[in-house]
Amino acid sequence: MKYFKNTGTVKHFISVFLIIGLLCSLAACSGKNSEGDKSGGNTSDPTQTALPSVDGAPASVNENAGNEEIAGAVPANVYTALDNKVCGFGFAKAPKGKVPDIGSYAKLIDNSKALYVGDTSQKNLYLTFDEGYENGFSGQILDTLKEKKCPAAFFVTGDYLKREPELIDRMINEGHIVGNHTWSHPTLPKIEDETKFKEELTKLDDYLAEKHGVKTTYFRYPNGEFSERSLKIVDDMGYKTVFWSTTYKDWERDVSRGADYAYDNIVNHVHDGAILLMHAVSKDNAEALGRIIDTLRAEGYTFCSLDELNFEK
After folding, report:
1. Of residues 45, 130, 143, 181, which has the active-site annotation?
2. Residue whose C-alpha is closest to residue 290's, from 167, 146, 169
3. 193-204 confidence digits (pLDDT tens)
4. Which end of the chain is less crowded, N or C, counting CB atoms within 10 A of the terminal residue's CB?
């Protein structure tokens, strides 16, 4: 074997060798890219979008994921990471002047665009009625509200919208809020299909806008049944969810315990910033409402519209 005695020759040989190797490597990479183009190239896969963890920190990052998503849209798989266990808000009674303790639900609600109570440093009250069906008392309730110049919000279902257009018009024309109580009053967390879930809200809003010319941003869960997942979906749809802090069992249409019973259950459990839930199917509520308003105003309370609540957190 001969050895190179001239170092210049050696350096030249090494340089040529490195250049040949580099060209071969580039050719190999080019071949791989060509194969990738045949199978769809570098198209992003929306299913690989980074999911937020429960505490809000990103679990993973894929910089190329979701590039084909519509701007502002929320990837469906964000919701699958959230707990969908059904929570029943129900009600808890507290002594007058005290906000009831809602336990672990407080954290869920605080992490969403939902409220169950207003500013507890102000003597303001927010009167709301749920309207799943008509039992002949809504007109009387509206008469009282008009006489007392008291604002309220009525959360209605699709069936109520279709059956009671005159009452809906009256609510709107007399300055009250008409809120969304879903189209068919389902347990929302049990609707796994996101599209069907959203239709329960959008169908009611579309009908309300078409027939009555208004659009609502206020929402209340049927039966108070919600989940972490449902809260997130409703938030992302742009609604303000309204729970409650003062109520009682008044939704049984054929059960009447008298106006005094309704009066005592509201007046004796009210507190600063209370969101009051009453059901318009109750004869007791209709008969006690005027006295409830008068008593609470005499105690220094002011009845306010939901529009005066601050949902920003």
Report:
1. 130
2. 146
3. 999 999 999 999
4. N
